[in-house]
Amino acid sequence: TGRVTLDPGFVNTASCRSAITYIDGDAGILRYRGYPIEQLAEGSTFLETAYLLIYGELPTEAELDAFDARIRRHTLLHEDLRSFFAGFPRDAHPMPVLSSAVSALSTFYQDSLDPFDAEQVELSTVRLLAKLPTIAAYAHRKSMGQPLLYPDNNLSLVENFLRMSFGFPAEPYELDPVKVNALDQLLVLHADHEQNCSTSTVRMVGSSHANLFASVSAGINALFGPLHGGANQAVLTMLESIKADGGDVASFVRKVKDKDTGVRLMGFGHRVYKNYDPRAAIIKRTADQVLERLGQRDELLDIALELEQQALSDDYFFERKLYPNVDFYTGLIYRALGFPPKMFTVLFALGRLPGWIAQWREMIADPDLKIARPRQLYVGPTERDYVPAGRR
Ligand code: CMC
């Protein structure tokens, strides 16, 4: 069977060729289709960035308008899928609700499941981009015991999502441009990150020719873990526990450095970045501005700043090249927008969706596509004879 190399966590193994996202982890560089993340965060929008990732080029104004209009027409959920939300326990975490509802799209939209039919792939792409915000908002409303609002297709994707998340049927929802722009920028920053755990999952599931909905649903479940997308919720829990401890940052840092405690500094460290995560640098500035402008500058931001500063000047973190990652400051912004911590990872999923779609489409179109099938090094018993139960 040839030589098999052991590479736990795929630290050195490339699983594919990709033309979507470039990362230089030592230099702290991230580019989508060649465009630096700083420029996209400043000048682009989430929808435009989604187009760039999926189709490879920035759209013209007419192309973007057509893309936007098409997505707006697909924001509604099938009524039977809408009633799905009633079946989950009220205190359910919204991430499994999200992955279940996305998985269920395969049952409601059976005319867009063929991975090798370009029109069907296009339709499932548009359906996912249009419906995930509606599903995410419903998961949130359900957990609050609040009404599910129908989407309003006069609004942009982000505006619509905020209205469905926080509006009420009996009164107009007032959109706050500071919130709309902050959320839009966060989604841009999360839109792709090459072969991370959830994206590799999407590709792995898709490599068996599973449809786009099934593959993305698997990606959402991979994102749920606290070492991946779940870290943004874990950061807030960590900051709150430090606050409850009288804001004693130094004692928390000591706990992290003592390996026996098993406590990690959440929102720090990255498999690829051995330098400041460029997304964290942008988000730190945004957090500062947004909290200031919303008049919500809080103690948790001060704790986060203090924690970052102490960690960055500490040998433990320096030697291991541990820097703040994308999740370190996002929770503070999500909280200021009004989302409960349980929703943070759902917001990450909304942002990452274009990346998952782009990567799945690149994989399906790859002439070298093979079903993903890692090998192993077997370390179990050698051959032995079966012994009937009475003689063991
Ligand atoms: N706090 C304390 N020590 C850490 C941390 C941390 N956050 N991250 C890594 N280390 C230590 C680790 O204990 C190990 O030390 P030693 O060499 O003495 O055994 C060394 O640094 C290398 O860590 P690793 O676990 O081998 O690194 P990895 O590449 O397997 O893990 C990671 C990367 C992101 C899972 C990890 O840094 C981590 O658990 N961070 C906290 C969770 C987090 O913030 N995740 C979000 C990642 S970015 C967005 C996303 O992917 O969703």
TrEMBL record:
One of the record's GO cellular component terms: cytoplasm
Keywords: Acyltransferase, Transferase, Tricarboxylic acid cycle
Cited Pfam families: Citrate_synt (PF00285)
GO biological process assignments: tricarboxylic acid cycle
CDD domains, per the entry: EcCS_like (cd06114)
Residues at the catalytic site: 270, 327
Pathway recorded for this protein: Carbohydrate metabolism; tricarboxylic acid cycle; isocitrate from oxaloacetate: step 1/2
Entry-linked PROSITE patterns: CITRATE_SYNTHASE (PS00480)
Xref: InterPro entries: Citrate_synth-like_lrg_a-sub, Citrate_synth-like_sm_a-sub, Citrate_synthase, Citrate_synthase_AS, Citrate_synthase_bac-typ, Citrate_synthase_sf, Citrate_synthase_typ-I
Reaction(s) the record says it catalyses: oxaloacetate + acetyl-CoA + H2O = citrate + CoA + H(+)
Gene Ontology molecular function: any one: citrate synthase activity
Family statement drawn from the similarity comment of this UniProt entry: Belongs to the citrate synthase family.
Family annotation (NCBIfam families): cit_synth_I, PRK05614.1
Protein name per Swiss-Prot or TrEMBL: Citrate synthase
